[in-house]
Amino acid sequence: MDFFNVMSVDEVKDILVKNFKNIKIETEKVSILDSYEKVLSKDIISQINVPEFNRSTVDGYAIKSKDSHGCSDFMPSFLDVLGEVRMGEAVNIDINNGQCIYVPTGGMIPKSSDCVIMIEHVEKLDENTIAIHKPISTGENVVYKGDDIKENEKVLSKGTKITSQDIGVLAALGVNEVEIYKPIKFTIISSGDEIIDLDEKLEFGKIRDINGYALYSLIKNLGGSIVKRTIVKDKYDLLRDEVLNGINSSDIVLISGGSSVGTKDYTYDVINSFDGQGVLVHGISLKPGKPTIIGECQNKPVIGLPGHPVSAIIVFKIFIEYLVNEILDININKYTVSAIIDKNLHSSPGKRTYQMVSLEEVDNKYYARPMFGKSSMITLLSKSCGYVIIDENCEGLYKEQEVKVHLL
Amino acid sequence: MDFFNVMSVDEVKDILVKNFKNIKIETEKVSILDSYEKVLSKDIISQINVPEFNRSTVDGYAIKSKDSHGCSDFMPSFLDVLGEVRMGEAVNIDINNGQCIYVPTGGMIPKSSDCVIMIEHVEKLDENTIAIHKPISTGENVVYKGDDIKENEKVLSKGTKITSQDIGVLAALGVNEVEIYKPIKFTIISSGDEIIDLDEKLEFGKIRDINGYALYSLIKNLGGSIVKRTIVKDKYDLLRDEVLNGINSSDIVLISGGSSVGTKDYTYDVINSFDGQGVLVHGISLKPGKPTIIGECQNKPVIGLPGHPVSAIIVFKIFIEYLVNEILDININKYTVSAIIDKNLHSSPGKRTYQMVSLEEVDNKYYARPMFGKSSMITLLSKSCGYVIIDENCEGLYKEQEVKVHLL
């Protein structure tokens, strides 16, 4: 075991991209109703203009704007009403100078009209005549053909994680189905003689499989699927069998647990026992999360996460989420929350530190309160709402300093 | 129709709470693996201590800390090694002064030991003797019984929207199933002669049911279920029939569309045609979203959303999300992103304005760029990442002013 050559967070990210970015993920077509938070595998190009016709945005009269120019309360313009446009129907008449036609909100305006005057601003003199008292300008209360979306416009890009608004856009285009990436397949192996599942009796000295369940949920949240979640005892052969199953059935294999020296050795040796480059990363200058192992077995990433729950979850968030975003080319912005840190914080020299914090709002400002606790404590995470990153070269943070909180 | 008595956003929220907070939502038990983002309907009280025993957080030797006091490189302490604790097994021996026992990470430490010295800091002299060169203090490298979670502690509260970390906590407790609220049931009615579904042919003058699809996705995202999504023509009887179906089968009925005067009248009249208080809110001093109607029919909320997609989605986010959070007592914090607005912005006096913005990061600072466009344009939303709220009493925002961006 050689724990001296630890790598930085950024070096590890580079290794992940270099070795695994090109993992092939299958695609499938789904109804847009099932596409929420799925990732588009193809650009969406509009085949149509939205709207396909010039629409009124108000209830009112479609006119030629120049018929309103110069009019006022003292000198109104009088216009002949040709009739009414019905919702959802094409207009088959046009207007000339001095003419207008009633259009409901969303209705089509006649070809020669360039604006709509709101019904509230019109004086109806009789069935066939209105008076208008103020000028309006070209384009007022009109959405022109293609104003929202133009034909041949790229509307959504490959790698978009689909939002409710995007589903609205797809509906506007009349797109029923989209091509998305199938879930990335994971195997989760929790290793350790002390780990028991929820349906087993808790004996003294044993501990529940916290990581297996938390990772399951993190993977689902990330859009992945879990082929198998299993617990293995600290035996080389048992671990190797499960890793082999994982490589054969999944895109990514996660081994969680194994914080004790014995298990760490097994994980290391198992990864090196397959065809491929074997162990690529063994120890990261990261707190928490140092004892992380990353290997390549038969072109698949096999990742040994630390056993402590906080470390395992943080390592997942830093590296697995990053890798998934890279594989699927996800263009997503994760925004941070600005806050004032309410305690001095020491960093660990040479390590990138992820300090858990809770957030409190006082007088319209957020305050970040560092949460302390050992990384074996799952409640340290459930009581925090995010973390602050303290860089390798930073000596620490000072009370009252402004920090960026990454939400969990 | 009386559009004069418009209410403020806060007044409308009060009306929603007063009339609909006590809607009864059924509960059910689900596996914790299916509980992600579901809402707990009962507090979770721990039946056990986590951990249930004093555990080592490192590979090392469990000792009595006072045996290390005063030792140094020049005057090491020598300790007898009694043996080894096996992972997942109870310790059946104890240590006396001058004795120690090897414990792997996560292993149980003997009763009389109060700290663990890391293997890296120990000199192994022979199979039965180690030397230690620096003092360590009580509690070092140990997690005590109950340190993470104490027996009878309230671990998660009713109204918690379950996170991956919470699932980790539940696993730690050995909790297999939790009681959660069943999805709140919605009916979505899109009304308008111009509205067609995705499988219909787009004729000139028609428009796709953008709102129906966007609302479907927003409801799913909020944890609700959609009993029916339907499109009705602008006819009083047809609309009333669908609202009746909705009231009978759902908890909340949404009518979307109906921006034209005729449809607005129908929605108003239909709501007033049922047993109950009828229309409670007719017009909100809100931009976009003014033409919103809220009524009570047979104790159920029936809500007429504006027809323009941006307005409908914003009204959903402001009022329906709020109502759902109130009904389920959800304790959730939505954090805002601080940004600098990069343009002057006028507000609409007397209205609360929701201004859509995109966010850009430059030199470690976020800049909010106002997105302009008519509220009938769905791309206005899909190109934005959030909104800034301009208060009723605020005259507007100045360029370079710091603002809070609410993410979509």
Automatic annotation (TrEMBL), chains A, B:
The keyword Acyltransferase does not apply. Keywords: Magnesium, Metal-binding, Molybdenum, Molybdenum cofactor biosynthesis, Transferase. Pathway: Cofactor biosynthesis; molybdopterin biosynthesis. Its EC number is 2.10.1.1. SMART domains: MoCF_biosynth. It catalyses: adenylyl-molybdopterin + molybdate = Mo-molybdopterin + AMP + H(+). Its cofactor is Mg(2+). Gene3D superfamilies: MoaB/Mog-like domain (3.40.980.10), MoeA, C-terminal, domain IV (2.40.340.10), Molybdopterin biosynthesis moea protein, domain 2 (3.90.105.10), Molybdopterin biosynthesis moea protein, domain 3 (2.170.190.11). CDD domains: MoeA. It holds the Pfam family MoCF_biosynth. Residues 187-326 form the MoaB/Mog domain. Belongs to the MoeA family. Catalyzes the insertion of molybdate into adenylated molybdopterin with the concomitant release of AMP. NCBIfam families: molyb_syn. This is Molybdopterin molybdenumtransferase. It comes from Romboutsia sedimentorum. The lineage of its organism: Bacteria, Bacillati, Bacillota, Clostridia, Peptostreptococcales.
